[in-house]
């Protein structure tokens, strides 16, 4: 029972990494970039025993040998397990093959992609000052109303009004009232 639960967690981790960064991914195949991310995030890559080059070589070997088509750039869950089996003895040198494989599975089980190094919104005073629309001058000031909300197209383009009056004429629309008075 515990074995099947562990394998379920391994499959869950595989699916999470398979869809990471790809909106069209189904979660059934893992590409090389996400395989490398999985190995890095799950601490399979260590400086001494397993390097990123080893990870790439194993991925190429597995995807070309067992892939759905030769020269495939993705691996399925079964091929993913074969790749872990291939890296396990190299990562855990002092253990038997089965123990190394179980240790490898424990590294991956239940993990998901991390977002370390992703750009976050800056909260400094300088950014607040630069994005305060009340302090904008010149043509930029006209793109926003008094509340700081953008005016859309009206603020970006000079929209021509075909009223017959010059642009900044103050008494626009008063002609009819002047002619009726006479």
UniProtKB/TrEMBL annotation:
Region annotation Disordered: where it falls in the sequence: 141-162
GO terms for MF: tubulin binding
Coiled coil (UniProt feature): none
Keyword annotations from UniProtKB, A to Z = Cytoplasm, Cytoskeleton, Microtubule
List where Basic and acidic residues composition bias occurs.
141-159
Which SUPFAM superfamilies does the protein's record reference? EF-hand
In the UniProt record, does the keyword Cytoplasm occur? yes
- Give the location in the cell: Cytoplasm, Cytoskeleton
One GO CC annotation? microtubule
Predominant localisation class: cytoplasm
Mind telling me which Pfam families this protein's record contains?
p25-alpha
Extract one GO BP annotation from the record.
microtubule bundle formation
UniProt-listed InterPro entries = EF-hand-dom_pair, TPP/p25
> Hey, which family's this protein in?
Belongs to the TPPP family.
Q: What name does UniProt use for this protein?
A: Tubulin polymerization-promoting protein family member 3
């Amino acid at each position: 029972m515990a074995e099947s639960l562990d394998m379920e967690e391994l499959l869950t981790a595989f699916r999470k990494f398979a869809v990471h960064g790809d909106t069209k991914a189904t979660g059934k195949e893992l590409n090389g970039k996400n395989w490398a991310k999985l190995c890095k995030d799950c601490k399979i890559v260590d400086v001494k025993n397993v390097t990123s080059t080893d990870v790439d070589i194993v991925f190429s070997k597995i995807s070309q040998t067992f892939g759905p088509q030769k020269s495939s750039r993705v691996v399925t869950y079964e091929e993913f397990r074969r790749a872990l089996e291939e890296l396990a003895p190299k990562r855990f040198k002092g253990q038997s093959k089965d123990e190394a494989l179980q240790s490898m599975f424990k590294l991956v089980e239940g993990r998901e992609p991390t977002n370390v190094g992703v750009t976050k919104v800056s909260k400094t005073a300088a950014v607040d000052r630069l994005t305060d629309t009340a302090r904008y001058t010149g043509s930029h000031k006209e793109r926003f109303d008094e509340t700081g909300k953008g005016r859309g197209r009206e603020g970006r383009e000079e929209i021509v009004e075909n009223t017959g009056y010059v642009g900044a004429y103050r008494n626009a629309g008063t002609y009819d009232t002047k002619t009726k008075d006479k």
